[in-house]
Amino acid sequence: xxxxxLHDRQALEELERRVTRCRRCPRLVEWRERVAREKRASxxxxxxxxxxxxxxxxxxxxxxxxxxAPAAHGGNRTGRxxxxxxxxxxxFGSMYRTGFANQPYSVSAxxxxxxxxxxVGAAVRCAPPANRPLPAERxxxxxxxxxxxxxxxPAVVVCLGKFAWDAACLLLGIRPRPRFGHLSEFRVPxxxxxxxxxxxxxxxxxxxKLTEPMLDAVFARAAHxxxxxxxxxxxxxx
Length: 238
Description:
This protein is an alpha/beta fold. Helices cover 39% and strands 11% of the residues.
């Protein structure tokens, strides 16, 4: 596979800059910045990011991973989605075991993590109170994921949790909305396949609702679809 067109790479970089400057949702702005000021005791010496968190990964990705939102003391602290929290430990551990990452951990934005054939984003780019964005906040933020999908043109969208599944259905105009479940699969005509996974939150991993083999099965299936699927054309320079 050739490298992603220079225009697409530059467009992704510009999108990242726009994401990090976003102040569309007053409630989320107030919360993310308050968390960054007050901090958690265990991270008292850390400098918090305290801004919207852009997606990151391989611009040539065939697999796009869509999460819910950055964690208050995870991505909101480190500046990289799923980095520095227990959900990220599970996610990147699985992506490492299935060949999508060069290492099984992610503790900071400069820890050497590289994604291979995958890109990770979120439906909402700011940490929300109680990890629950409002519908209007989701709708304000979804255009960022839409632009990533337009530029990357993945074969598969892995949806981490029902919130991400529903957001992906909105992004791709899927009606009626197919039922979410672990390893649920839906093929979009002339578009990517949706693949559902329980979210790697502590609520799911501590209770055994989600196990490492279950999460690995999702990324193994995503790799199979990506390898077998028809290449979706990349966005062209207008």
